Amino acid sequence: MNSGGDQPGTPWDATHITEMCARRAEWLRGEGHSADVVMSSRVRLARNLDGMMFMPKADRAQRERVLERCRAAILESDLAPRMLWVDLHETGKAERLLLVERQLISRSLARGKQPGGAGSKDEPRGVAVGLPDEQFSIMVNEEDHVRIQAMRSGLCLAEAAEHASAIDDQLDRRLGYAFNDRFGYLTACPTNLGTGARFSVMLHLPALKLTSEIDKVKHAAEDMGLAVRGFYGEGSEAFGDFYQISNQVTLGRSESDLLATMQREIVPKVVEYERRARDVMLNSRRRSTEDKVFRGLGLLRAARLLSVEEAMNGLSIVRLGVQLGLVHDVDLEAITRLILRIQNAHLDVTSPGPKNPAARSGARADLVRRTLSATPGE
Amino acid sequence: MNSGGDQPGTPWDATHITEMCARRAEWLRGEGHSADVVMSSRVRLARNLDGMMFMPKADRAQRERVLERCRAAILESDLAPRMLWVDLHETGKAERLLLVERQLISRSLARGKQPGGAGSKDEPRGVAVGLPDEQFSIMVNEEDHVRIQAMRSGLCLAEAAEHASAIDDQLDRRLGYAFNDRFGYLTACPTNLGTGARFSVMLHLPALKLTSEIDKVKHAAEDMGLAVRGFYGEGSEAFGDFYQISNQVTLGRSESDLLATMQREIVPKVVEYERRARDVMLNSRRRSTEDKVFRGLGLLRAARLLSVEEAMNGLSIVRLGVQLGLVHDVDLEAITRLILRIQNAHLDVTSPGPKNPAARSGARADLVRRTLSATPGE
Hints:
Strand order of the largest sheet of chain A: 2-3-4-5-1-8-10-9
CATH class of the largest domain in chain A: Alpha Beta
Number of helices of chain A: 13
Order of helices and strands of chain A: HEHEHHEEEHEEEHHEEHHHHHH
Shape of chain A: globular
Number of strands of chain A: 10
Structural class of chain A: alpha+beta
CATH topology of the largest domain in chain A: Creatine Kinase, Chain A, domain 2
Helix content of chain A: 40-55%
Largest interface: A-B, 17 and 17 residues
CATH superfamily of the largest domain in chain A: Glutamine synthetase/guanido kinase, catalytic domain
Radius of gyration of chain A: 21 Å
CATH architecture of the largest domain in chain A: 2-Layer Sandwich
Distance between the termini of chain A: 24 Å
Oligomer: homodimer
Largest sheet of chain A: 8 strands, antiparallel
C-alpha cells in the first residue's frame, strides 16, 4: 500500500487505480440535499487552450503538446490533498474501465475516440482525479482539450459549480483558454459554446417509473431543453431507474441563470413528483409496492447468477424500499456502495476468479448476496 | 366438529367438505415408490348400469334414478371407514371447486356439464369419497354413470388398480353393469370401451423441463398412445412442471397388460430420464441450477402477491432443490401440502378476508411466505 504516491507532492498513477476503487466515491455517498431522490450533482466545464489546434484538427504532436502542458499545469496546482494522474494511452483497458465506472472519465476518453469515431487507445490523453474524495476530475484531450468536472452527493449544483470554477481559474492562469467576447468559451462542438458548462443531476426515480409517469417527466424535461440520459450518460440505459438530467445548450444563457433554473426550479419539481408518486405507492398501493420491494430484495439475496442490469434494478427497488420504510434490515450505504462494486471492472478487481461473463455473473451474485445478508453495519 | 357424520354408518355430507380439506390428501403425501419423480398413481374405471339409458341419452328422471341407485349401493357397501357423500346439484360452487382441487371430481362433474357442453349445475349427480385418506372417489353421472377412481402416492398403479377393482366388484354385485362379450364394459365414449380403465401417473419433471428435453419425452409418450396432460387433467396447463401421463385407448388390451406396461416400462423410463437430467443439472450446471432453485425459494419467501401459476412454479423448483440436496431448511411435506392449499377454493376456506383475485393473491403470498419461512417441523 505504501508507494511513491504517498509522498507529498508525488501524484498517484495508474498503479493506484485499484486502490482508489476500494473506496467510496463522493458522488455516490447518498447524502446531502434531497438525497432521497437526487443521487448526485455534477458540473462540467469544457475548455480549450488558446493558440492550440482544437481536437478535431490537431495532429498527434499537437495533442501530445496539449497533454504535456495540461499535465504540468494540473500537477503544479494545489487542487487536492493528493492527485491521481493517469496517462490513459499507457494504461490497460481494465484500469480505464474502472475510471469509467466511477464516472471519472467518459467512455469515449477511455477508448481514445473522438466524436465521429476517429482515434484509438494510443491517442495521447489523460485524466487527473482529486483524492481522496474524487470530488473532481479533469479530462485532457477528450472532445475538448480540458474538461473539468466537479461532483457532489445530493442536490448540490452550486457548490459543485464553485469547485469547478475554482479549478477553472487556476488552470486558466497557467494555460490560457480560448475565449471570444461574442461567443464566450470556444469549444469543439457548438452546443458547448458560451459558458461551456453542463449541469447535471443523477436522479433516482423508481416511483415515477412504476407509476408509469416517467415518460411525462422526460418529455417535460426535454421541452425545457434538458437531456435525459441513463446511469452512464449518453447512449446508456436507465438501469435501475437512475436518470441523468442535464442542460443541452449553453450559448446565450449565463452560467448562474442555468444553474439557478436547474437547482431551484426544475430538479425540485421532479423531486416533488417522485415523492408524490412514492406516497401513492405507499398509501394507495401498499401491498403491490411491498410485493415489488421484497421480490427485489428476495432476488438479490437468493440469486447465484446476476447480470449488471438485474442487480441495478434490484438495488433500485430495494433503495426505494428502504426509503419508504418498508425494508429495515438493509443499510442504504451498502446499496450505494454496491452500485459501483457490481460493475464489471470493479468486480474483476475485487473477485479472484476468472474474468468472463459467466464467472462475473456468479461473483456479482455472491457479492450482492453476502453484502445484503449481513446485518447493517457489518 | 362433532356432527351427524361422526355417527358410525352415517355418511359425511357437503357440510364436512371444508373439514376434510384441512387434511392431507393421500395422493399428495409425497411418499412411495419413485416418489422423487412420481407424485401419485391413479386408476379410473368407467362403468354404466345395465338397462339404464346412458348419460347422453338419459332424461332427468332417468338420471335421478341412476343417482339414487348408485348412492344407495355405495352407502350400503363397506368401502371405507367413513364415507363422504355429496349431492353435487345441491352443493355450492365453493364446495364443488374444493373437490375439484383435491382431484376427487372432474371439472365437468363440478359444472354438471356433459361432453359437448350440455347440462347445468342442477343436473342430478354426486360423488362419494372414502375417508379419512381420500384414497378413492366414485363419481356418479359424470360422462358415465359410475366412475371409480383410486389414488396412491408414488408409483403404485397395481395397488390402486386392486383397490378400484375391489370397489368395482362390490358395486357390480349391487348395480349390475352394462357389459358385452365382444366389447367388454360399455361406455358413453368409445375410447373407454373394453376395460373402461385409465391408468395415470402424476410426474414431477422439472429437470426435463429445464434441460428442454420435456418435448422429446412428451412426443415419445404420445407415440406410445399415451396422453400427456397438466396438473388438473384434460386441457389444463402443466403448472409447476407437473405432468399427468395416462393411457388413451382401452379397447383390445387387457387391463393387466396396460398396467404392466405403464408401471414397469414407460413410467420407470421417464423417471430414469428425469433423474439423469437432475444429475446433469447438479453436476454439470450446478451454479445455474442453484440460481434457479434459490431464486424460486427467494420469490416464495419474499412475494406479497402470488398467482397460482407463480406459486406452483416456485414450489416445483423448490421441490427439485430439496431433492437435489441444495435446499436444507424446507420440509418436502410443507411443499406438498402447499400445492393444494394455494389453490383458490382451498385458500378461500382457510383465509378470512374477502374472496376476490387480488385478496387471494395476497393471502396466497402470506400463506406461502409463512409456511416456508418457518423452520421445518414447525
